[in-house]
Amino acid sequence: MKTFICGSLLLVALGGRAQTPALPELPSPTRVLQGEKQFNAVTLGPGNSFTVKQTPPDYQLDSFDFSPDGTWTFMSWASGRLEVRENQTGKRIAQFKPMSGPVFQADYIEQTRQLLVTGQHGVIRLVDPHSGKKLREIHTEIGRFKYDLQKVVIAHDGSWLAYVNEENGKVLDLKSEPPRRLADLGDAYDLALRRDGTELWLIDREKIFGLKTEDWNTIASAPLLDKVRPDGTPTLAVASVDEGVVAFLPSQGGLLRYELKTMTGRKVAANPSYWVVPAAASNEVLVSEWQSLSLYRADGSLHCQWKPHPGQNLKVSENGQWLGSRNSGEAELWSLDSLVGSCPGRKP
Questions:
Q1: Residues 106-123 pLDDT 10s
Q2: CB-based burial label for 332 (10 Å; 0-12, 13-18, 19+)
Q3: Residue 213 CA to its chain's centroid (Å)
């Protein structure tokens, strides 16, 4: 009798476990963008011995960024070389070194047809995206901790830019020379521009707050409902809903969602989360969570989940066409529509 009971309990336990399907792997990428230079790190020697060489900087992919329309990918190598590649074909259309040292961020400004790049020691340059020719250089204020730039956002028309460096971020007027300070952003860690360009939202480790881009007056602020990871950099994503604009940010206790009109926040998931990436075109956010990569709708409902991806530096193009990942010296690209459409068990 005891054997039967134990066996029944085992079957129940196995049956219960079987009812929770494993998360699917991310499918193979739609396109892989690789540098044309190839480096063989392993050299065979006598007696089946081998030597592993350190990868030279010109073969180490540091970061990548998309153009807003999803046409180009900007690949930044550790040597400071920057490649511009066409996403549909993978063809390289330009390469240059826009500044000495590595490039941390590359953003294309469609209205002015300029490429904004950031580098060490708080330097920001506007360059020609085809030749790399310097058009303008901006030296941001270095604080006492000498932190480098964390993130830069520029107006759609290129009239101003905002930067955060975890210490003394600023908004600068690019219509003046030298750029005039428009607002102080303090020790903010990340910032996100509302899609219509009228509001700038920011977070530090204690609060979320917003500014009107028309006059740079404060909109509102609210304390964070939960602590962010002490060993990570807080990230922020904004999306639009019927009642206005909402913001998402990760925390140790789960994904946080704020309705920015009322500054009311709630936790929409109990799974610890690490970073968020906006998929602005579809009003969704991609979230790195404990043991999953998840896509949430603007209302906070879960849309899709996959197993965590080993790549780093995941980004979504502003037009929502591409999801990209930096992985082993290459940029992997997925069609976001195809990826979400193939998600098993997705809710309409």
A1: 999 999 999 999 999 999
A2: buried
A3: 22
User: Model pTM?
Assistant: 0.87
Q: What is d(CA 67, CA 125) in angstroms, rounded to the nearest whole number?
A: 16
Starting at the edge strand that comes first in sequence, how are the strands of the sheet with 134-139 ordered?
105-109, 114-118, 123-127, 134-139
For residue 301, the SS3 value is: coil
Cis bond before residue 27 (omega within 30° of 0) = no
**Contact (CB, 8 A) for 212 and 198:** yes
pLDDT of 229 over the 90 cut:
no
Q: Which long-range contacts (CB under 8 A, 24 or more apart) does 300-304 make?
A: 300/255, 300/257, 300/266, 300/268, 301/268, 301/347, 302/269, 302/347, 303/340, 303/343, 303/346, 303/347, 304/340, 304/343, 304/346
β pairing state of 264-267 and 273-279: unpaired
| Other C-beta atoms lying within 10 Å of the C-beta of residue 162 | 24
